[in-house]
């Protein structure tokens, strides 16, 4: 797990995009940081945020006949 600090006017999805390259980890970030959502949409500058490791799950693919 990595720790970062928010920049001015950061949102959780911006932090996720900056670190992971997409915003699919927003829920995992919120779970790893209890109370983070209560700080509002724009996080206070310098808020310490724990970034969990991305878990890789194998993709099953898409089958139109399932």
Helix % is 10-25%
Strand content: 5-15%
Individual helix count: 2
Number of β-strand runs? 2
Largest sheet: 2 strands, antiparallel
Structural class by helix and strand composition = alpha+beta
Outline type:
elongated
Distance between the termini: 37 Å
Radius of gyration: 14 Å
What number is the mean pLDDT?
Answer: 90
Low-confidence stretches: none
Order of helices and strands: EHHE
Order of the strands making up the biggest sheet: 1-2
Structure description:
The protein is an alpha+beta fold. It is built from two helices and two strands. The protein has helices at 12-20, 26-32, and strands at residues 2-5, 48-51. A two-stranded antiparallel sheet has the order 1-2. It is elongated.
Keywords:
66 residues; alpha+beta; two-stranded antiparallel sheet; 2 helices; 2 strands
Q: Short summary of the structure?
A:
The protein has 66 residues and is an alpha+beta fold. 24% of the residues lie in helices and 12% in strands.
Topology:
Blueprint lengths: L1 E4 L6 H9 L5 H7 L15 E4 L15
Antiparallel strand pairs: 1-2
